[in-house]
Every structure is written in structure tokens, then in C-alpha cells.
Amino acid sequence: MAKDSAKNRRYWLNEHGRPVGETHWRATLTDHDVELILALRDDGMPLAEIAVKFEVSKSCVWKIVHGYRRWQRGVRLSNERR
Q1: 61 in Cβ contact with 51 (< 8 Å)
Q2: pLDDT mean by block of 10 residues, the chain; 82 residues
Q3: Is residue 40, in this structure, part of any structural domain at all?
Q4: Which end of the chain, C or N, has fewer beta carbons within 10 A?
């Protein structure tokens, strides 16, 4: 089966028409990864262990856990990458 070509992809956009979540060009974590990070922290896993597991910095995990770096929910889908 062929991989998703760029022209067949759908991108989540926020209310300003900017890409958000894992469709953002600088995203290193998927939306699912962020949900797992929050769940692992709720279960008491230390930030350093979570960071190693997801191959990101401890400060990245801290910012996700404390709401400084969170993905935004997309409000609409688009076939065009902006």
C-alpha cells in the first residue's frame, strides 16, 4: 500500500488558520504521545523517566505537564498545508 502523499494529507488548523498538533511542521510528539505523557505523570512517573522514554528534554515534559507547551485542538481540517 502506498504511503500518504502530501496532496492526500489533511491538516488540523486552529481558529486563525494555522497548523496545530502533530500536523504543525515543528511537532516532535504526536497528539497521542502528549496524552501518554500526561497519563504517565498522573500515575507518578518522574519527569526524567518520561523524557527518556519519549526522547525529549526534561524541560519539554515539564512544559507539557504544566500547560506551557500543549498542542491546540484543531477546529477544522484542510487539504492545504500553510
Answers
A1: yes
A2: 54 72 73 91 97 95 82 61 56
A3: yes
A4: N
Predicted pLDDT of residue 81? 57
> What is the rounded CA–CA span in Å between residue 8 and residue 79?
7
Q: Rounded distance, CA 67 to CA 65, Å?
A: 6
What pLDDT shows up at residue 1? Answer: 43
In the structure grid, which three cell numbers stand for residue 58, read together?
A: 526534561
DSSP string, the chain: -PPPPGGG--EEE-TTS-B-GGGSTT--S-HHHHHHHHHHHHTT--HHHHHHHHTS-HHHHHHHHTTSS-PPPPSEEESS--
Q: Which residue has the cell 500518504?
A: 4
Buried b (16+ CB within 10 A) or exposed e, 60-72: bbeebbeeeeebe
Domain total of the chain: 1
Whole-model pTM? 0.66
